[in-house]
Amino acid sequence: MRMFKKWVTAVLGTAVLTGGSLLAVPGAASADPQEAVGHETRPGQPYRNNPEPDRDWLGSYLVNGQQVWCVQFALTAPDSGEEYQPGDELKTKWGTAIPEDTAADISYLLLRYGNTQSPDEAAALAHLLHSWTAAPRSQADLDPDNDFTRIAYDADAHLAKLPESAKAKVESFKAEAGENRGPWEAELTAPEGEQTIGQAAEWTLTVQRTDGKGIGGVPVQLSPTDVEIEGVGDDGAVTTPEDGSPLKLQVTPTGPNPKITGKLSAPADRPYVRQAVNQPDTTQRVVSTGGEQELSVEAETTAVTAPGVVKVGKTDSESQAGIAGVSLRVTAADGSPAVRQDGTPLVGEDGQPAVVVTGDDGTAEIADLRTPQEIKIVEVKPAPGYEEAFDEANPPSVTGTVEGGRTLELSLVNKPNTPTVPIRIPAGDPTPESGVPAGLLGLAGLTAVTVIGGTGFALRRRIGARKQ
Asked: Where is the SpaA-like prealbumin fold domain (predicted)?
């Protein structure tokens, strides 16, 4: 299948999308009607009062600086001073309807080759236009005694006069048009689910013909909103792959509502005619590259910022060591459940805001959080050894905002319980030095303490004993 390598300039012009992009031939003046691109053939097809019997022109014309195509053989060249406007549906020279498939082929070829600068392509297109719109109804229509209004186009004779390279184009054009005629369908598809701002994802653009096969080399003008499209120039133009496969677009959201719209020109069911306003009987009908219809594509989705992570540490206020096994509740700032990246609430099996427990290093991590989001960490109950400073009515808490793609580090400090010193009375074997049992040593020690603590009372007891 012939691909549309030269089509980009023709289709992407603003005028094409409004139904009449016509490409001026470089260096040609628009003041006078001119033959533009094509081949001269000799001798000309004979008919009565032929002003140029020695030649015919198979190609395009330049009118008002625009390239146009004759669709009714043997009429005089268009007057460049006349204004042209889209007219009725294109019919044959005899006023009959063009068969549906042929009309679709004409639309395709005008769209694809209407702005060609190749003489072979232009001659092939002109030859086919004449063949399809001015073919003889009977042999009488080829009689040289007919004037220009009644003479039919002798397709075989004209084809024989063309260069071999142009003849080859005629055959390839017919095959190409038969494969790629309209109607076309175009579709742009966004990825399923939310996208992440700043992270590229794949969108898909397809252009297909009636049998579902993709069409390659089709230019599409894209208009992005809240996205950047990789590989697209300032003009916003992309082209479908030459093999007709879907075009994979790498699209990076830059805002919350990614959207892409696109426009392309596709072959119309039937081409439109550009006809002279003032002298329809003496000026030939011409067509522009208006054998197209505009197709639109659109796709949109939503995007969120990258997820964030909260890392909370629980430490001893005196030693600064991490405290393991501390239960911490994770909530939004107002106490409601925090929100995960996918929009679901972060809750436990009981349906309440989730609780995490610090590990051996005294830290706990909460990942995949929607951002930006204010997160509050509240201590549920103290770890053993830290009960004294814990106020159940006002438990330790800390709040912070987690941002997209970042880790928010928070910390909570616990004061350890006040240490207690136990009273211990030693007991055991006698000491080798004195040979006194340890228990007696303990009593002696206790007596000594008692004596020291109550000296006056002990002396009185001793005096009284002597008197007796």
From this structure: 309-387
